[in-house]
Amino acid sequence: MKLLIINGPNLNMLGRRESAHYGTLTLTDINTKLIERADGRAELEFFQSNHEGAITDRIQLSSGFDGIIINAGAYTHTSIAIRDALLAVKVPFVEVHLSNVYAREDFRHKSYLSDIARGVIAGFGWMSYALALEFFMSEPK
Ligand code: DQA
Q1: Which end of the chain is more exposed for a tag (fewer CB within 10 A), N or C?
Q2: What is the set of active-site residues?
Q3: What are the extents of the domains in the chain?
Q4: How far apart are CA 30 and CA 124, in angstroms?
Q5: Which top EC class is named for this enzyme in its record (predicted)?
């Protein structure tokens, strides 16, 4: 099984960014933990960009993947382009967030991805990604 893990804007700043919301691990730390948890059961490819178009381009090239785990960061709340790319490729995806976006500002309660996602996981820090990974690895084919 091949999974694509996409991180959007400012997630390259993890470890230096609002630790009360996002914890102290860097994105590299999180990716390392996911590789450990996959333990050879899934091949993981990682992509991070601060640019909406680059994320859209990467999604367009994802048709060979069994699933996508995406934390689109702030683009979650704004991006019709990322939504449309996910609809176009039809690869099942799980929307993840480190923080519980529903316990934060109102503008974070709106997601352009949730209604087309296989599922949504928010508020568990790096474990949000791990739970999404567990889902894909245990889902019957
Ligand atoms: C986030 C939540 C978003 O609202 C925010 O813009 C982020 C990170 C999260 O992982 O909690 O950049 O997606």
Answers
A1: C
A2: 22, 97
A3: 2-138
A4: 12
A5: lyase
Asked if residue 76 has its Cβ within 6 Å of ligand 1, the reply is yes
Query: Is residue 77 a known part of a binding site?
Result: yes
Fold of 2-138: Rossmann fold (3.40.50)
Question: pLDDT 10s digit of each residue in the chain, 141 long?
Answer: 999 999 999 999 999 988 989 989 999 999 999 999 999 999 999 999 999 999 999 999 999 999 999 999 999 999 999 999 999 999 999 999 999 999 999 999 999 999 999 999 999 999 999 999 999 999 855
62 is in an annotated binding site: no
pTM higher than 0.95, yes or no?
yes
Residue type, 31: N
* ipTM value for the complex: 0.99
Distance between Cα 8 and ligand 1 center (Å):
9
CB of 101 within 6 A of ligand 1: the answer is yes
